[in-house]
């Protein structure tokens, strides 16, 4: 066990009070405590420690190689630089991450795979990704990793600023861990946010997810992911590491009872009816069907001083868009960039942390709002119809829509006057190009 963990055993009895007013034993102050060792917690811990800032990571699960099974693990092109910053871009590819771009089926036809140059998505199962990322974090000098340790309370000083946490550990017992900055990286249900009294804004999601894995799908392109926008259902085909392919469905919630009664029959019936469907009858299914119905979108913005949130704890998006992993590590990177100088200078970086939350939300709020609208599973609004149909007919429109869906551009490009005019003229040109109706057809109309 690392020296700093041994220090925790000494429990130096510093005094602080939790919300219930109880005094507890506490360990020496570490600068940053990160709660949660999944994607965003590992990224934040590694990046703080690399700046020379001591970090203690508290993770309730163990052993160290656990992973998140409920995830379809599409890694968006917008996060490639963040993976490079973590020195994990090449290791992910070496471990089998599949480079790909995505084709999107709409009722107007396919939005073709974009030529994004060096920019691409990656597909890697969480069973491979999570242990790799966590091992890198644990081996980063300056990180103390406590697994099987749950954050059970948040400590405040008399001004209402967060100054530490209470930890319940299977091996170390119960103790307080004071810190200069507490980072909640503990996912959509964020115990840290709840214990710190942070309100949650929630928007509903009318779809649920059901997915499974296959091998050897006949005639499959291993460098192409596919998405079907069936209105209102959504489906995906993602080639993954180790020759596997994930196929996911996101039907509307009125089908939950049918799926619960017979997942296989419902799943296979919908997949086999997809336009240009993957041949699942000719493939080997290698996993059970996993279902997830808890997928409302969450946002937490009103935080006390001394607390930062990253990843799903800050912003849980609709899984349909495949942004959770990418935005998780990007948020960790942005937090560290803003907060590290203050921590290194020896003070709590309140202003910088507030600026991080504001800037991060401002960066993605256009996306977030579109996701929240799409999660209602209503008919596609007219403007979206125009953009998507134009993207099936015009390569430049396809690139614009693909860049937006990949997170490499925002609403400033997608909804610009220039884009909307191009979509409009593409639509008009297309309707003018339609062959004139035959006399018999027009009389039938
Ligand atoms: C059905 C589905 C499909 C998805 N598909 C995709 C996709 O294709 N692409 C994509 O990018 N994202 C996808 N996501 C989202 C993605 O899974 C999450 O966004 C991502 O895992 C968030 O990472 P995180 O580190 O913020 O939180 P989490 O992965 O939720 O990790 C939180 C960690 O905190 C720990 N923890 C919790 N409470 C405590 C506590 N009190 N004390 C100590 N530790 C604690 C947990 O054990 C866990 O390890 C999908 C999600 C769902 C539900």
Report on the structure:
By secondary structure, the protein is of the alpha+beta class. The chain has 3 domains: 3-67 and 130-202 and 297-367, 3-Layer(bba) Sandwich (FAD/NAD(P)-binding domain), CATH 3.50.50.60; 206-294, D-Amino Acid Oxidase, Chain A, domain 2 (2-Layer Sandwich), CATH 3.30.9; 382-433, no CATH class. Helices cover 36% and strands 24% of the residues. The chain has 15 helices and 21 strands. Strands 4, 5, 6, 7, 13, 14, 15, 16, 17 and 18 form a 10-stranded mixed β-sheet that branches. Strands 1, 2, 3, 8, 9, 10, 11 and 20 form an 8-stranded mixed β-sheet that branches. A hairpin with a 4-residue loop joins β15 (234-239) and β16 (244-250). α9 packs antiparallel against α10. The longest helix is centred in the C-terminal third of the chain and has 25 residues, at 350-374. The model is unreliable at 1-7, 9-24 and 439-445 (pLDDT under 50). Flavin-adenine dinucleotide binds next to α2, β3, β9 and α9. The site of flavin-adenine dinucleotide (FAD) has 36 residues, from α2, β3, β9 and α9.
Mean pLDDT: 91
Portion in beta strands? 15-25%
Query: What is the C-alpha radius of gyration, as a whole number of Å?
Result: 24 Å
Name of the CATH homologous superfamily of the largest domain: FAD/NAD(P)-binding domain
Distance between the termini: 79 Å
Number of domains: 3
| CATH T-level topology of the largest domain | FAD/NAD(P)-binding domain
Main β-sheet description? 10 strands, mixed
**What general form does the structure show?**
globular
Bound molecules: flavin-adenine dinucleotide
In terms of per-residue confidence, which ranges show pLDDT below 50 for 5 or more consecutive residues? 1-7, 9-24, 439-445
